[in-house]
Design a protein that fits this description.
- Helix content is about 35%, strand content about 30%.
- The protein is built from 9 helices and 18 strands.
- The strands form 5 sheets. Strands 1-2-6-3-7-18-8-17 form an 8-stranded mixed beta sheet, sandwiched between helices. It has a 4-stranded antiparallel beta sheet with strand order 12-14-10-15, with helices on one face.
């Protein structure tokens, strides 16, 4: 039996097909540019709050597309505004642009050989977390959407954020400073989307998690004071290194014996210990620096409280004293439940339902969380691991590598998220 389709629906369907066809052509034509931009940015990385050339490259591109462009946001950030042909809501798309103090060990033809200084030490500089890909992807999204203003019902705000890895000590920066400077206002943003490429996830796939997706990160500093003495006469002094060892051991019991890990994961790690000058001198002091990762604010309060109780008490028990300072670096990256549910079909449409998965909570942190504290947001992961890879190196390492063929899916996902959200 033949089914009669009303002409109105037929024309709408034909219109949608034509729109999708036009978008697909734009996607295919932008891929080589995105790869070229990514490789250039990878070869010329810049540290947090020092992304001057990267920002200049971004701003020049956005201006060439006819966008309203603002520079110098949160030091080196760039914001572009694209108004559609129809009025509507405001959606923000974010990419981070900074690199890390890591010396690259890859043999890529566009390998970074840039060197700099970080915390007084000479170091290589490398996009060892994939921010070069995020930047190139969003530049590509801006070009595609600028060619399709007739499909935009509202406004798209492109946020190129510096210092996601954290500003240098003594400086402000990152998403927190962008929010403070009003990046989510004028015009007011209704929702925000962000992505992160992953070196250990196959290309062609996307991952997301409703609710708490990434952990809050806190930095802490413990200063231990003892009494200096000769290394041959420990009884004549108070050993701050021994006290530090006792503190480190005790802090791990907060996680292994006190935290209710069936609710959410938590981590306490010491990343740096500084003390002493010679093998035969028990020093007067020691400094411990570390990180706390929590996915629940009640858990965070509990961990902080127990550390504040333990640290001075342990030092006192061994004849010394100790102070603890805790600084919050990022909030919990929380994917708005309603927004995530509404946009999940878009991700499935772009990548195919079989290529979408829900990931478990991650103890890594993202300052995208500060945008999400102000407006509903969705942060998801993009596969960057090439087929046949036998060893995929993790982020923040000298051997970190991303396959360029995975970038186009990122362009498509961010483009369709913006268009679908604005047309809801």
């Amino acid at each position: 039996m033949y089914k009669i389709i009303p002409l109105a629906f037929l024309f709408i369907g034909l219109g949608l097909c034509a729109q999708d066809s036009n978008l697909e052509q734009d996607f295919q034509s932008i891929e080589s540019k995105v790869i070229e931009w990514r490789r250039d940015i990878h070869q010329n990385p810049e540290l947090s709050n020092r992304e001057f050339k990267t920002a200049e490259k971004i701003a020049k591109h956005l201006k060439s597309l006819g966008l309203e462009v603002q520079t110098g946001v949160a030091h080196t950030g760039v914001v572009g505004l694209l108004k559609g042909d129809q009025p509507g809501k405001v959606v923000a798309l974010r990419a981070d642009i900074d690199a890390l103090p890591v010396t690259e060990r890859n043999d890529l033809p566009f390998k970074s050989t840039v060197t700099s200084e970080y915390l007084g030490k000479a170091t290589g500089v490398m996009h060892a977390c994939g921010h070069d890909t995020h930047t190139a992807i969003l530049m590509g999204v801006a070009e595609v959407l600028s060619k399709n203003k007739d499909k935009i019902k509202g406004t798209v705000k492109f946020i190129f954020q510096p210092a996601e890895e954290g500003p240098p000590p003594g400086e402000e920066g990152g998403a927190l400073l962008m929010v403070k400077e009003g990046v989510l206002q004028n015009p007011d943003v209704d929702a925000i989307f962000g992505l992160h490429i992953n070196s250990q996830t196959p290309i062609g796939t996307l991952k997301y998690k409703p609710g708490g997706a990434l952990a809050s990160a806190q930095r802490f500093v413990i200063n231990v004071r003892g009494k200096q003495t000769h290394g041959s006469q420990p009884w004549a002094g108070t050993d701050p290194i021994m006290i530090s060892a006792k503190i480190i051991d005790a802090l791990q019991t907060i996680i292994s014996r006190e935290a209710e890990l069936t609710n959410e994961a938590a981590v306490i790690s010491i990343g740096k210990i500084t003390s002493g000058v010679r093998s035969n001198i028990i020093p007067e002091s020691a400094e411990l620096i570390g990180t706390i990762r929590t996915l629940d604010y009640d858990m965070q309060k509990f961990v902080n409280k127990r550390m504040e109780e333990m640290v001075p008490a342990i030092a006192k028990a061994y004849g010394g004293d100790a102070t603890l300072e805790i600084f919050t670096s990022t909030a919990i990256t929380f994917n708005d439940l309603d927004l995530t549910a509404k946009m999940a079909p878009t991700l499935e449409k772009v990548a195919g339902k079989e290529n979408i998965s829900i990931h478990k909570a991650i103890t890594g942190a993202e300052d995208f969380s500060y945008f999400q504290e102000k407006v509903p947001g969705l942060f998801f992961f993009l596969g960057g691991m090439a087929p046949g890879t036998t060893e995929a190196f993790p982020h923040h390492t000298p051997d970190f590598k991303i396959d360029d063929s995975g970038l186009l899916l990122g362009v498509k996902a961010m483009t369709h998220l913006a268009l679908d959200y604005l047309n809801m």
